[in-house]
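A further point concerns the way the authors explain their paired sequence and structure data. For illustration, here is how one protein appears when written out as sequence plus structure tokens:
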Amino acid sequence: MKKMLYCMHIGWNWIKQRPHFIAEKLANEYELTVISDYNYRVKRTSTKNEKVKIVNFYKIPKIDTLKHLSEINIMLRNWFYSAYIRKIKPDCVYVMTPYAVKCIPNWYKGTLIYDCMDDMISFDDSSTQRDKILRDESDLIDRAEIVFVSSENLKEKLKNRYSSSNNKKYVLVRNGYSGIEPKLNEKTPCCEKSRHILCYFGTIASWLNFEYIQKSLEDFDSIEYLLIGPKQAGVQVPKHDRIKYMGPVAHDDLYENVKDADAFIMPFVLNDLIMSVDPVKLYEYINFRKNIICVEYPEVERFSDFVYFYKDYESYANAIKEVIASDKIKFSIEKQNAFLALNTWEVRAKTIAKVINNELECKNTAKQDEN
């Protein structure tokens, strides 16, 4: 079995996201060691997987944005990554952030893989930080043999941004859902309720449209919001007696916490970051079988059979009216099952493994020809 060093830029104890799901599935294909940035603020929310060996990297907190101190964590990470590459001698190293390029030693001659989940420069408004990300990402893409991207828009952005790169190395691997979960009945008795619960789970961040949420609470006396997930630094959930914020929960406990919701929402403010997002939560929402309200943009148009889209507040309010007035789910069980069968993390991991194995085989063949 080939060896893989899988370097996560978020903690294994963070809410379960693409890196966690892919790692769990790739552990069936490779002898997998995960280096995870330990998150000091969050209790464990990811499930333990016996096939995945987790090694925590304990960086010094709160110094990454400080000009003269941030290099300390880079040096520590460089030493840590180098030590594990020497220790396990991986056939491939899998990274998920541009910053990792400085931490993979130049003497490593195995296969380097970059999984680009988001448009990284859109996370930071600082021109200095953006320039740094651009330089690092350009170096990483030049050095990597494979670049996985999570959306078509992101793929096109990277190809245009780094025009000198080999475009054949870009491979689209969308997000997915985590497997079989309890399903709700075909009908939900929302007409019997005095309040209708609209639920969001995921990171509570600056891209949430709290303006629409607050205005809808003024316009609809019968709705309340349930928000689940960790808060981005500096983001405050509005105080309202019909907004319930739970904080993060373990992924295995998620369904139990959302089963009484009447609909799921994805109330995002459209910006450069969101335009490149293939939302994991839409897959999970479909799997949990409830009506869904989502902001419309090109990357999610393929979910049209499952989602009530909106473009402005008026259409957002109309979507709310639609879901609270009906006791029927927009999509059938047959359509749900057909979609989910094609969009599991296992399917995604098999695609990833096939691409990686082809690359490893080509490199091995080239070495044999040289000899």
About this structure: The CA atoms of residues 47 and 213 lie 32 Å apart.
